[in-house]
Amino acid sequence: MTPALSPALCIVPLGEAHIPALVTLFEQAVRRSGPEHYSAEQVEQWALGSQHPGFVSQLREHHGWVVEQANVPLGFVTLSPDGHLSLLYVNADHQRQGLGNLLLTTALAGARGLGMTLITTEASAFSYELFLRHGFTLTGLECVERGGVSFTRHRLHCCLPS
C-alpha cells in the first residue's frame, strides 16, 4: 500500500478571505503556545489582541503572505510599507516544522523586491532565535503594557542588501 502524500505547502498573498481564519489562528497560537514562556495574564492579554481593530487593519493594509496546505492557512506574516514586520504566527499544531522560517524568508524576499533596505520588528521569546538566524540584530529590549499587564520584547533590525 502506498502511503498517502500530504498536500503541498504553498505561499500566497494575504487576502481579505484569509482574515477570519488568521484572527482565529493568531488567538489559538498564542493561547496554546504562550504558556511556555508567559504568565496566564500575559497570554490572555496577548490573545485579546486579535479583537483589537488595529489587528485586522494590519492584515488588510500591510503586505502579507500566508502559508497554506490544501487551502487551509497554517501561518502568516505581515510587513508594513515602512519595513516593520509586525505579525509572524504559525498554527500551534504546525510550529517547529520550518513554517516560521519559510514565512520570514518570504517576507524578507518581498521586502527586497519592494526596495526596502531596513526591516524592524519586536520579537517574543518564541521568535527571537528565528530572527537572529535570519540576520537580525538586537537593538534593545522594550517593555510594553497591554490591559495593565507588562511584556518584555526584543527590538530587532535587519539591513538588507540594496
UniProtKB/TrEMBL annotation:
It comes from the Bacteria. Residues 9-156 form the N-acetyltransferase domain. It comes from Aeromonas veronii. PROSITE patterns: GNAT. The keyword Transferase applies. This is GNAT family N-acetyltransferase. GO terms for molecular function: acyltransferase activity, transferring groups other than amino-acyl groups. Keywords: Transferase. InterPro entries: Acyl_CoA_acyltransferase, GNAT_dom, N-acetyltrans/Recomb-assoc. It holds the Pfam family Acetyltransf_10. The keyword Transferase applies. PANTHER family: ACETYLTRANSFERASE, ACETYLTRANSFERASE (GNAT) FAMILY PROTEIN.
